[in-house]
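User: Fold this; tokens only.

Assistant: Input:
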Amino acid sequence: MESIILKRIKEKKFVLIAEIGVNYYDIAKEENITPIDAAKLMITKAKDAGIHAVKFQTYKAETLAAKDSPYYWDINEEPTKTQRELFKKFDTFGYEEYKELHDYCDSIGIEFLSTAFDYESADYLDKLMNVYKISSSDLSNLPFIEYQAKKGKPILLSVGASNEDEIETAIKTIKKVNNKPIILLHCVLEYPTPYEHANLNKIVTLSKKYPDLIIGYSDHTKPDKNYDILTTAYNLGASVIEKHYTLNKSLKGNDHYHAMDPNDAKEILKKIEYIDTIRGNYDLKCLESEEKARKNARRSIVSYGDISKGQIITKEMLTYKRPGIGISPTEINKIIGKTAKIDIKDDTILQYEMFE
């Protein structure tokens, strides 16, 4: 299937990516179904909500984290104390499962993605994806970035918890071996991200520094009532937004507590559509809807006193009044010095046929 993400970007349309990650394991328990069925259920509901792409996370705990790697999340929401222990709960899927999910996405018309966290998954996911996603956590893992970039596909690159020199180096590493589009995602590596830490002006900075790249936002805030975080990100230049996604935001553990659900997604897309409506276009010209007001609110050149046939027109014989259906004041120099063809009464809206 053609990349929905890239197609929409080319058409200058907003892209919303649902980061399912590994949330389907908890949904499977809640719904008393298999993890693969839970993943498909989440995909279906994402598609129904209007989401454009879904993204998973592909890893094996042993290759991702050392045994005693410390946690960096809110343990009131996710009490697991080491990364290895947490990741081990959610690493049973392999190529066959992701192939099944890819095929299911294709069948209903939503794009499939998964972040690879090791070389093996980067290889087998290559057959299943149009776009690679590189996690903020791998921004300094230059050998792995280059390995994925050599696959020759567009890349989504999150830049959470990174400094300017690190971002620059990662981009250069990609461009050295890959000339496809790069989508740079501002991100804050804090789970959840307090609203006051969202630092959305970084989107503006990234847009100015990298005008040749597509700029987006990967969000870790809890959905706010009016979705101001995401709509502000969009208004600041994030044309692609990735947000964690669940079917039940009240579930404890992992990424449910700062995720959007299908209803949130619908509202986000509705608000983005409204923003697009009120933004309009960039043309510096009168709108079609303004034409009536333009005609009636602008002024025409009007006779100031009676003008007799044969009189030479002087500036003192003229004034300017609404509506703008006669000769425009911008053309006054074309009237001064002309001769009246007819008698013209006071307060007459002047037309060119009245002069010779």
